[in-house]
Amino acid sequence: MTQAAAPGAARDPGGRGRTGEIHVRGLRKVYRQKGTGVQVVAIDRLDFTVRQGEVVAIVGRTGCGKSTFLHILIGLEWPSAGAVEIDGLTPYGDFAAFRGRIAAVFQQDRLLPWRTVLHNVELGLEILGVEPGRRREVAEAWLDRLGLGQFLGAFPGELSGGMRQRVALARAFAVNPEILVADEAFGHLDEVTSAQIRQDFLSLARAEGKTVFLVTHQIEEALAVGERVLVFGRPATVLADVRPDALAGGDRAAARERIQGMLNLGRAPGGSEGGLSG
Question: pTM here?
Answer without folding.
Answer: 0.84
